[in-house]
Batch of 4 targets.
Target 1
Amino acid sequence: MNLSIAMETAWKVLPSLNHLINVLKSKMHEFMDVIKIGRTHMQDAVPMSVGQELSGYVSQLQQAVDSIKSQLPLICYLAVGGTAVGTGLNCFKGFDEELCMGLTQLADRLYRTMYKESTPVIDLVFKPAENKFAALAGHDALLQLSGCFNTTATALMRLSNDFCLLSSGPNCGLSEFVLPANEPGSSIMPSKLNTFPL
């Protein structure tokens, strides 16, 4: 379980989030001088730039990435060699360290095979759990990583909802953001465009 979660997170989730952050940063710089109204509780408040608004999303997502990256090494501590309850009874001496070293090398080789021309966002180094009793009895690191994912999902949902609201229209919505059309709209609503902000 820990292996697959670590690899999917390091090889797919983090690069995808970094790509989104880079796209938002690009748009942040592009629209830094475009002024719009800032709102508090949906009420007009003070002027701000679109770039400033986008910088908030960038910061929130970067914090989410940093949180995931700080938690990911804890997922790489494995309960291997603890046998049934953590005592290591009937396990060869050094088995846990050799297996973790082999898994680290295998993961590195697999990454280089799958993603030939890219550098990993974070290196996966698997190690034997310091306390195998705790590692077998509880999954605290996974729970904490789940919390990081929950925070990330909340940030992405907020970004998506804000983009949907700010691009609502075209005739009666806010229409502050004009997003590229992803596909044609409805035959009964000719001005409707289906956009996909993310």
Note: The chain has five helices and six strands.
Target 2
Amino acid sequence: MASRKVAFTPGWIKNKDSYKYSDPFKYILNFYLWGNPCKQVSSSGRTMEKRGWGKDVWRKKELRTYLFIQAGLVNGKNFVKSKSIDDIAKAVSTVDLNGHFQEKRDCNRLAFYSDDKQPDFLQIIFYIRCAFAHGRFERYENETTYYAIEAVTRKPGSNDCVLKARMMIKEDTLVEWAKTIVAGEKEFREKNHKLIDHVKHLIKKQIEAGQSQNKAAIIRATGIDTVIAKECFTAMSKDAEIVFDKKSKRWTVMK
């Protein structure tokens, strides 16, 4: 299992003297470092309200759901939030970011600690900001570019740090997250409508395939976070887009 204690300068972090500043990387730094939406983080920051989002944007969870689906994050699989700093090592192991985690570049993976004082997504953005600000990241260019990211708290007078977050994130994901927030709520509504249609399509596809008529199995087969897919499934049932026949014990796509 991973440890919650890590070195201040681990071997996987290299110096940045000759770092290449590609256009996507510049955009990422501009948003997460300077234009960060977290309050009281950057003097140049722009909060969600300043970007035209409603005050209850995170309470409604629509934006959070959209951003997580875009990143392919599934709770308990490649995304884990630890509510106790003592459990961060377990969270890291759950998403398979222990050991030589910087080599595991096959999908987005996030493990982080949160005291729930701010919304999950803003907490994630804050940790990403900290990683860039303190040089605790590496960029791996390939067919798909990934960023290995860590956020830590250093013990005074020690080389030991307490791990707060560890992530492996695609560059495309970091850019898409930033662009979605910068574009504002109106454009998001259009994107979100298309995404909901996509989730509905996946659910209908599983029902029509007929491999399983169990609601839980259908939801799991979509590959979408179960909480998110369940909400969509419930809405589809309520709107009679899909109907369950008690006699045959089968779901049917109606429209």
Note: The chain has a mean pLDDT of 91.
Target 3
Amino acid sequence: MISSMHHCIQDDTGLPEINAYYNNTKSGVDAVDEKCSIYCCSRRTQRWPMALFYRFVNMFSINAYTIHQSCANADRLDRIDFLKLLAKQLYEPLLREKSQKTNLPRELKAGICRILKLAPKATADAQ
């Protein structure tokens, strides 16, 4: 391994300092991989940009959960409940914007209203 921070060779093991540093810090990567395997948003895809995007979403959700849990006044949520809340907060503004469009099919607009728990608006063409 190459490092611009660790140059010394340890006396007790005879290995470079970077090896000891790596061994001490690699548990974080293992923990993230374990959390990703429990609740994962990835889907099968043949496109590498989508696979990368799914991996980023997994890592971002783990980071967001960690930050949320570290807040003093935060509700203590299970990770799955946190992920559901996070997903809802991400899709809700988009669906609200979409529901305002006039050229959506009625079935789609009704589905959006059902998801958002909105009362369907009466339209002029329904009369």
Note: The chain has a mean pLDDT of 80.
Target 4
Amino acid sequence: MIIVTAGPNLFEKGIVSELCEKGLGAIRIPTSKQPPLEQINKIADELKSNVKILIDLPGAKYRLNNPNNYSVKKGDILTISKNEMIYDFVGQLAVYPKIDFDICVGDIFVIGDGETAFQVIEDNTEQIIVKVEKDAILGPRRGITPECKTINYQVLTENDYQNMSCLSNKTITGIILSFVENAEEIVKIKKYVKDTYNRNVEIYAKVETKKGINNLSNIVSEADYVILARGDLLITAGEEDFPILQEEFLEKMKSFSKKAIIATELAHSVGTNYLMSRSELTFLYLIGKMGYKNLMLASETTVLCDPIEVFEKISHLIDFYANHKK
């Protein structure tokens, strides 16, 4: 199963209908930046009944409030408000939801998937003052995550519960939960959906912390699918532990490969190059020969690539590698 993510490129007329004809498995609808039904309505006329629609609930992932691209330079000093009510940038960067962990001078906040980082140089009750570590253009509402700091992630926020009201639309077949670290969280959500909307939907559990990797055995017992969310795993675990935890996931999930989905930066190079990058091809070959065939494309189908081209290339390669005999 190949999952694509909704975004500007996917919304172009005819793209979804062609992907459906080519065997698309599911469409991921991110809810962090745009209402889910608003996105679904853009592609509703092109959907096929056998294609799953999944709403991705971000949980308590901290984000900056810029609705448009925001340029920063190395050495810039920025003031970031802790007032989570400043949802849209009006001359003042802010973080939402409300920060509920301790901040120390010297802490590093990784921005987005690692495009840049901010080092804390001052902190008080109202704001954080940071220094930019690397030039970057920040996309709208990029994540801001403390590096290698243990956080008690809230799987669902009040905003997520509001977005779940779209489950009254039977087109939606599944929920993607972020920062899942134990099975109890999944059980709770299943009960809520059943009690509130009188229906059952598939649960896709994103594993993106060391604690989540450690608890894989009980998470897989309750989730319909488990997603290796490599983007936030790198940020929460750090460069040293990331490949070790990734390998641990792949080894632990071997027996459940049909329930595993691999995500994040699988084919970025398709957007700019004729040939895919060596590192991307090597990783696809590795997971393919281990039996992993479920992949989730994110920015590849939202802004970086032609969704048809990247879908065809990835579908072919993962099948080829999975069936390759020495």
Note: The mean pLDDT is 91.
